[in-house]
Amino acid sequence: MLVSHERPVPVQNRLLAALPAEDFERLRPHLEVVRLLTRQTVYKSREPITHLYFPQMCMVSLVALADGSATVEVATVGNDGVVGLPIFLGADRIVGQAVCQIPGPALRIEAGIFREQMGVGSRLHALLQAYTLALLTLIAQTAACNRLHSMAQRCARWLLMTHDRVGVEEFPLTQEFLAQMLGVRRASVTGAAGVLQKAGWIQYRRGQITVVDRAGLETACCECYRIITDEFDRLFAGV
C-alpha cells in the first residue's frame, strides 16, 4: 500500500460527497490518501479492522472463504461506499476477506477516530444506515444472479458495476482473478468475455479490460444490474 500526501477530495467518493461541507471538514484532518494495489489484502479473516477505506478510483472485493483457501466474491465496494462497515455495526473484524481487485486511490481513516465521528443522528450515521441496506441488496441480488443467470450476463453485470465504481473505461483485470472471484473455472470466464468482445462491447488485451460500448453491454446484462444500481441511486437521492 502506498500512502500519499495529497489533500483528500470528497467528490471522488459518493458517500463522502453526500456529507454537508461542515461534516466533511471535521473528517478531513483524519483522512489520508492511500493507493491500494492489485490483490492487496485489505482485511484478513477475523483480524481486527484498524482502518476504514473510502475508495475513489479503486474497487475492493468482499469475499467468502471455503475449503481453506477457495474464495468467492459476495460484494464489491467502489466509489459508492466504504470498506469497513463492521465498525459502524459495532464489530471490529470480518469472517471473510477484503481484497483489492482494481488498484487505485482511496481515503483511509483510523477505526477509533471514525467511531467518534459517526454519532447517532448525524448525517454520516444516516448515510451509513442507508448504505448498509444498499449493500445487503447487492449481496442478495448477486447470490440470485449467480444462481439464475448465464455466465455472459454475470460478466456483463460485473463489468458494468466495475465501470460505475472506478469511473474509467479501461482497468486492469485478469480472467483468472475474475474467475476466482466469481467461483467458476477460468474457461467459463474466457468464453463469456469472448462473447462480449466479439459483439464489440468490450476489448480484452494483456490483462486490461476496456468498456468500448456501454449501451451494448447493458443489453447483454440481466435485470440484476438495474436492481442494484437503482438501490444505490435511491440511497444518494433520498438521504
Give a written overview of the molecule:
The chain has 239 residues and is α+β, with helices and mostly antiparallel strands. It is built from ten helices and eleven strands. Strand 10 and strand 11 form a beta hairpin. Helix 6 crosses helix 8. The radius of gyration is 17 Å and the shape is globular. The mean pLDDT is 88.
Name the descriptors.
Jelly Rolls; 2 domains; 4-stranded antiparallel beta sheet; alpha+beta
Short recap of the structure:
The protein is built from ten helices and eleven strands. With 239 residues, the protein is an alpha+beta fold.
Secondary-structure map:
Layout: E1 2-4, H1 14-17, H2 21-27, E2 32-36, E3 41-43, E4 51-55, E5 59-66, E6 70-77, H3 85-88, E7 97-102, E8 104-110, H4 111-117, H5 123-148, H6 151-166, E9 170-172, H7 175-182, H8 186-198, E10 202-205, E11 208-211, H9 214-220, H10 224-238
Antiparallel strand pairs: 1-2, 2-8, 3-7, 4-8, 5-6, 5-7, 9-11, 10-11
Helix pairs in contact: 5-10, 6-8, 6-9, 7-8
